[in-house]
Write a structure and sequence with these properties.
Layout (H helix, E strand, L loop, with lengths): L21 H19 L9 H16 L7 H13 L7 E4 L7 E2 L2 E6 L2 E7 L9 E5 L2 E2 H10 L11 H8 L13 E6 L2 E6 L3 E2 L2 H11 L8 E4 L4 E5 L7 H16 L1 H5 L3 E5 L8 H12 L11 E5 L2 H19 L4 H19 L3 E5 L19 E6 L6 H9 L5 E5 L8 E8 L5 E11 L13 E2 L7 H13 L6
Parallel strand pairs: 11-12, 12-15, 15-16, 16-19
Antiparallel strand pairs: 1-18, 2-9, 3-4, 5-6, 5-7, 7-8, 10-11, 13-14, 13-18, 17-18
Helix pairs in contact: 1-2, 1-3, 2-3, 4-5, 5-6, 7-9, 9-12, 10-11
């Protein structure tokens, strides 16, 4: 079994010079999570989603009731994680701020492929590659995945989350609240075999490589590369770049913007969104309009945003405006104008004592300026996603999927709730950081929990750049990308 070890000295020392118990620290952090959400998240005052407030109360009480299980740094963190995971919201999460030296595995990598749990990689003497895992310790394998992973992270209702969850179920970071399976039944070519799992410690590099391989692999670095005559692979692994990466992505956008005919008349354009968990939707807007021009045609609707009106939320937007927004988009950009509108609106709402401030799209109304017409694009356009695509990445998908002729390939995206625009705080013990949303969408065309399913799914075992480019080339040659 994997050894669990972390010294109690990792916990912060109180002002009296004595260490609080792990239970005390756990209860203090748990209360801080609840109080922060109550004070600053739109969910508790969102009358359209009573389930949020219900879990805030019920989940909190359940988490308090298990405080007797909390006796070390790992049970502290995973106990809190179980409470946060119950919201099933990708914009409400917990990150461990303490070092965790526990890395364990059973000598093979499990993966979710074609709706089955299979062995993707295996050391000599281990289960056969390609074998399906049917059960562990007498329980269906899906039960183990829920108990070991979904009770603490991810969302079992999203097809995309089964990819990382299955791999994580057969790796260990030492969670004492989720016992390791001891024996599993593997089936290959109709023959079943029970094997004892040989759990052992490994290093961080091996662990990370196994987790990447079992999921969606390592995304390509940001860039535009040619992979055939007049075929361009546009890799966008994030919409939240900083520093040199922001400069690289700005140069990519400028290349497409300044050479529109090259890209619009190409044979094939692939937007590769692997690894893109979001950031600023303005990056997606840039690449969309650089290729297609104008604005995508959308069904008219009454879409707006309600912000939770608190001084801390207002200050976070002001800090973002003074930092990355000005740095990446410029003082006179629409992004800065957006930030100024939010700050002014929240200032007024806080002064009045309002719980919410409503932001209405100021681009709508009586503006008679003719809209720029979309450009003529003869290139075949594909957008490749894995299960990471969320937040601003989904905003980009909202735009691309209404553009004529765009084909979605790869795997289902992730999904958002209606709660967006996150900020992060450190909990009182300094053992973990809580990330939570500050605004709620109203009337958005893509509803809460809705994900995009590809027109053409990738059914290969290995999500490598080379395998995917070969696959896309085959699709193009077979005419599968013609629309």
């Amino acid at each position: 079994m994997v050894t669990h070890f972390l010294a109690a000295s990792l916990l912060a020392v109180t002002s009296q010079g004595t260490e609080p118990s792990f239970q005390d620290a756990y209860l203090s952090d748990l209360a801080a999570i609840r109080d922060t959400i109550l004070a600053h998240h739109p969910g508790p005052v969102d009358e359209s989603n009573p389930a949020f407030a219900e879990w805030l109360d019920e989940g909190y009480e359940h988490a308090r009731s298990r405080s007797g299980e909390i006796n070390d740094p790992l049970s502290h963190f995973y106990g809190l994680s179980a409470f946060v995971a119950g919201f099933r919201d990708g914009h409400l999460g917990l990150a461990n701020a303490r070092p965790n030296p526990n890395f364990g595995w059973p000598g093979f990598v499990a993966a979710w492929r074609n709706d089955e749990v299979v062995v993707l990689q295996s050391e000599a003497g281990g289960p056969a590659i390609g074998a399906a895992i049917r059960s562990c310790d007498g329980r269906p394998v899906a039960d183990w995945i829920h108990a070991r992973v979904f009770d603490f992270m991810f969302n079992p209702d999203l097809p995309s989350d089964w990819y990382p969850a299955v791999t994580r179920a057969f790796l260990s970071r030492g969670n004492p609240l989720a016992p390791l399976p001891g024996e599993c039944v593997f089936e290959l070519d109709g023959e079943a075999q029970a094997l004892a799992l040989n759990w052992r410690e490994t290093d961080a590099e091996t662990f990370s490589a196994a987790f990447r391989a079992g999921g969606f692999g390592q995304p390509d670095e940001a860039g535009i590369t040619e992979f055939g005559t007049d075929r361009y692979w546009v890799s966008l692994p994030t919409f939240g770049p900083g520093g040199e990466l922001a400069e690289t992505m700005t140069a990519m956008w400028e290349r497409m913007r300044d050479n529109p005919e090259t890209f619009r008349n190409a044979d094939l354009i692939v937007f590769d969104l692997r690894g893109n968990g979001g950031g600023s939707s303005m990056w997606g807007d840039r690449f969309d309009t650089a290729l297609f021009g104008g604005q995508p045609e959308r069904e008219p609707g009454d879409t707006y945003v309600d912000w939770r009106a608190t001084q801390d939320n207002r200050d976070h937007i002001a800090e973002a405006a003074d930092g990355f927004i000005r740095e990446q988009f410029g003082e006179d950009s629409e992004a800065m104008a957006w930030a100024r509108r939010i700050i002014a609106g929240l200032d007024g709402a806080v002064a009045r004592g309002d719980a919410l401030w409503r932001q209405v799209d100021e681009s709508r109304g009586d503006d008679e300026t003719p809209a720029e017409l979309p450009a003529s694009v003869t290139a075949r356009v594909a957008v490749l996603t894995d299960g990471s695509c969320a937040s601003a990445c989904l905003d980009f998908m909202d735009r691309l999927t209404v553009r004529p002729g765009v084909v979605h390939i790869g795997a289902p995206t992730s999904a958002d709730t209606d709660y967006m625009e996150v900020r992060t705080i450190t909990l009182p013990s300094e053992a973990a950081r809580l990330t939570f949303a500050q605004k709620v969408y109203r009337g958005r065309a893509r509803g809460a929990g809705v994900y995009y399913t590809p027109d053409i799914s990738f059914d290969g075992l290995h999500w490598t750049g080379e395998a995917l480019r070969d696959w896309v080339t085959e699709l193009r040659e077979a005419g599968a990308l013609d629309r």
